[in-house]
Every structure is written in structure tokens, then in C-alpha cells.
Amino acid sequence: MENKKIPMRTCIACRSEKPKRELIRIVKTSDNQFKVDRTGKLNGRGAYLCDDKACLEKIIKKKLLKVAFGVEVPDSVYLELSEEFFGKE
Q: Containing H/E element for 23?
């Protein structure tokens, strides 16, 4: 019996490679909206992030979504991601 290949993805913050299902996908849709895609099935360009507060803080501090998607990302998107990840603090 053949083993299934597990898709691997790289976290945009810490650059560690992990199985796709262990990471959270952030999607830029065709209408330039950004959403957290925990299912991994939304249409659009995706970037992956560890489910870790340190990685989230790093993408906010260094504006790594701009690098990953090649477009300006408003600060409101980072705030929404923070709230969706960890609730309002």
C-alpha cells in the first residue's frame, strides 16, 4: 500500500515547513479582501501562518502580508486578523 504524500507549506513568519493542515491560511480574494481560511478551501491567493501568537506578532510588526501578496495591506486587516486569531485583548 502506498503512503499518501502530505502537502507541506511554509509559515510566512518563522519560515518553518509544516503539514498544510497544521497551518492557518490567509487568503487575498479577487476583490482584494483578506480572510482567515481555516478550511483551506477559499478561492484566492493564500499565505500560511503558524497558529502561534509569536508568528502573528511578527507578520504585524514586519508587514509580511505585503511581502507575501505584493500589495499594500491596510492596518485594519492586521487588526482583524489579530482579533480573529486570539479574540479582542
A: strand 23-28
In the numeric block, which cell numbers belong to residue 40? 483551506
Residue with cell 507549506: 9
Give the bridge partners for 25, in sequence order.
Answer: 37, 48
Region 44-62: what's the mean pLDDT?
92
Distance of CA 82 to the CA centre of its chain: 11
pLDDT in tens, 33-52: 888 888 888 999 999 999 88
Structure-block grid coordinates of residue 66: 505585503
Q: Is 23 exposed, middle or buried (0-12, 13-18, 19+ CB in 10 A)?
A: buried
Contact 72, 78 (CB under 8 A): no
29 contacts 36 by C-beta, under 8 angstroms: no
